[in-house]
């Protein structure tokens, strides 16, 4: 039988949102520590909620279902093991996958390529890219077979390309064709008018914590800003303000994942991966309050 969450987590004196955030944070720790992913029913019993209610509370706090969270954590362990040079079979069991068949079924979602390709730095994987100019300077857009995996802004196009190559050191980088140029135009349109949004296919790769932060970022409406502290509270990790800032800084998809909408507690503009001046310009275009 699952051990219920401690009463301190469900302190009735706290607002409902705070209780839910604390509950989800505890369940995330429980999932992380489990040898095999707990079922939704097991998590619901631990939380003292119905499975339906838990699913809603968990997804509202993290942007992911409990099952997707567990999968993201497995993928994170898999990436770490493969990047460290572990054999695919060893990495499989170290990450908590039950069989090689299951691993290869989930590899596309977890890695964006086969485990062997990932271990070899993206060998034989194809990344299409284009460099261009927009009102904020140089722009690089790259896409894997799954979706847009990089949107970068800067002053030096070569530096943006070097950064992409460093992310995928053994992948084949392919210059844009006519079809890809249409996608680039959509991305540039998003940069020029970020408040309009864009339904872009995204290949979002990151740790479970990063994905949790990035999901929360995507829920911030255009024209609004939140502080790093508030963002940390929204994902149920109020003490993880620095880690939240780190996840924002690691965001590889400028504007599509709107980390420019996060500011200091005093409203000031903190660092931005692509430059504070660009952050200010994006917020001005959105009419941010």
From TrEMBL:
<dbReference type="Pfam" id="PF12833">
    <property type="entry name" value="HTH_18"/>
</dbReference>
<dbReference type="GO" id="GO:0003700">
    <property type="term" value="F:DNA-binding transcription factor activity"/>
</dbReference>
<keyword id="KW-0489">Methyltransferase</keyword>
<dbReference type="InterPro" id="IPR036217">
    <property type="entry name" value="MethylDNA_cys_MeTrfase_DNAb"/>
</dbReference>
<dbReference type="GO" id="GO:0006281">
    <property type="term" value="P:DNA repair"/>
</dbReference>
<dbReference type="Pfam" id="PF01035">
    <property type="entry name" value="DNA_binding_1"/>
</dbReference>
<dbReference type="GO" id="GO:0003908">
    <property type="term" value="F:methylated-DNA-[protein]-cysteine S-methyltransferase activity"/>
</dbReference>
<keyword id="KW-0808">Transferase</keyword>
<dbReference type="InterPro" id="IPR001497">
    <property type="entry name" value="MethylDNA_cys_MeTrfase_AS"/>
</dbReference>
<dbReference type="InterPro" id="IPR014048">
    <property type="entry name" value="MethylDNA_cys_MeTrfase_DNA-bd"/>
</dbReference>
<protein>
    <submittedName>
        <fullName>Bifunctional DNA-binding transcriptional regulator/O6-methylguanine-DNA methyltransferase Ada</fullName>
    </submittedName>
</protein>
<keyword id="KW-0227">DNA damage</keyword>
<dbReference type="InterPro" id="IPR036388">
    <property type="entry name" value="WH-like_DNA-bd_sf"/>
</dbReference>
<keyword id="KW-0804">Transcription</keyword>
<dbReference type="InterPro" id="IPR018060">
    <property type="entry name" value="HTH_AraC"/>
</dbReference>
<feature type="domain" description="HTH araC/xylS-type">
    <location>
        <begin position="25"/>
        <end position="121"/>
    </location>
</feature>
<dbReference type="GO" id="GO:0043565">
    <property type="term" value="F:sequence-specific DNA binding"/>
</dbReference>
<keyword id="KW-0805">Transcription regulation</keyword>
<dbReference type="InterPro" id="IPR009057">
    <property type="entry name" value="Homeodomain-like_sf"/>
</dbReference>
<dbReference type="InterPro" id="IPR036631">
    <property type="entry name" value="MGMT_N_sf"/>
</dbReference>
<dbReference type="GO" id="GO:0032259">
    <property type="term" value="P:methylation"/>
</dbReference>
<keyword id="KW-0238">DNA-binding</keyword>
<keyword id="KW-0234">DNA repair</keyword>
<dbReference type="InterPro" id="IPR018062">
    <property type="entry name" value="HTH_AraC-typ_CS"/>
</dbReference>
């Amino acid at each position: 039988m699952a051990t219920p969450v401690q009463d301190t987590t469900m302190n009735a004196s706290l607002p409902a949102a705070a209780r839910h955030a604390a509950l989800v944070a505890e369940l995330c720790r429980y999932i992380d520590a489990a040898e095999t992913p707990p079922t939704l029913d097991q998590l619901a019993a631990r939380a003292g909620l119905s499975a339906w209610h838990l699913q809603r509370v968990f997804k509202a706090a993290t942007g992911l279902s409990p099952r997707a969270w567990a999968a993201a954590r497995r993928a994170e362990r898999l990436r770490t093991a493969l990047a460290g040079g572990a054999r695919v079979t060893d990495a499989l069991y170290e990450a908590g996958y039950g069989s090689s068949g299951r691993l290869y079924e989930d590899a596309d979602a977890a890695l964006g390529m086969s485990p062997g390709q990932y271990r070899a730095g993206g060998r034989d994987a194809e990344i299409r890219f284009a460099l261009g100019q927009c009102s904020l300077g140089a722009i690089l857009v790259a896409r894997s077979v799954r979706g847009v995996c990089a949107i970068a802004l800067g002053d030096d196009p070569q530096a943006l390309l070097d950064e992409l190559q460093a992310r995928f050191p053994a992948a084949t980088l392919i210059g844009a064709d006519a079809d890809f140029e249409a996608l680039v135009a959509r991305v540039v349109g998003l940069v020029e008018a970020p408040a309009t949004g864009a339904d872009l296919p995204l290949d979002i790769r990151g740790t479970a914590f990063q994905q949790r932060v990035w999901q929360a970022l995507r829920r911030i409406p255009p024209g609004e800003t939140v502080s790093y502290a508030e963002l940390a509270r929204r994902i149920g990790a109020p003490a993880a303000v620095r880690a939240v800032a780190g996840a924002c800084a690691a965001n590889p998809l400028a504007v599509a994942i709107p980390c420019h909408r996060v500011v200091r507690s005093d409203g000031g503009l903190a660092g931005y991966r692509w430059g504070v001046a660009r952050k200010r310009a994006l917020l001005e275009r959105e009419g941010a309050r």
